[in-house]
Amino acid sequence: MLPAEAEGRAYIQYGNLRKAAAVLVGLVEQADRVPQIGPLHHVIVRKTVAGLHWARGDHPAWADWIGQARTIGHAARLTHQVAGIVRTYGAAVAPLLVEIAAPPPRPGARPNGRTYPSGRRPRWPSGSVSALSVPSR
Questions:
Q1: What is the mean pLDDT of residues 100-122?
Q2: Were both Cys, which of 21, 24, 82, 104 would link to 8 (CB 3.0–4.6 Å)?
Q3: What is the rounded CA–CA span in Å between residue 39 and residue 24?
Q4: What's residue 101's pLDDT?
Q5: CB–CB of 78/39 below 8 Å?
Q6: What are the backbone dihedrals phi and psi of residue 45, each rounded to the nearest 5 degrees, phi first?
């Protein structure tokens, strides 16, 4: 499926929209039919189909496809894919992103988004001495 998506993306990039449409026509249905296809692949295929509609100048269809990609990506926490959508389309996609709120933090999340192995924040044992403490004289 992804080789066909890449072929369609290449046709779009080089301006052969008829061949791109022929390649991409069944990919979304295929992605929806196969249960092993994850959300990342759904987002990638929908972004490519949206790119085809963008290249054709069909902005209502583009908004529908890019909205689907954004919704799936946001629900699956694919922040890199959502950021790629914003980077690619800039201000055109801004109205579609207004209703997105920041995803709730995962339990035990660090400030950088990773989680601690135990799922909760570690605590210093009571009575422990910090490495930065200076003994008094």
A1: 53
A2: 24
A3: 18
A4: 47
A5: yes
A6: -65, -45
CA distance 14 to 23: 14
Distance CA 24, CA 17 (A): 10
Q: Which amino acid is at 80?
A: H
Q: Average pLDDT of 100-127? A: 53
What are the tokens at 25? Answer: 């026509």
Tokens of 102: 């920041």
**Residues found in the chain:** 137
Token duo for residue 2: 């992804």
Is the domain covering 2-97 a CATH 1.25.40 domain?
A: yes
Residue range 24-41, pLDDT digits in tens = 988 988 888 988 889 999
Distances (CA, A) of 90 to 66, 112, 115, 120: 12, 25, 31, 37
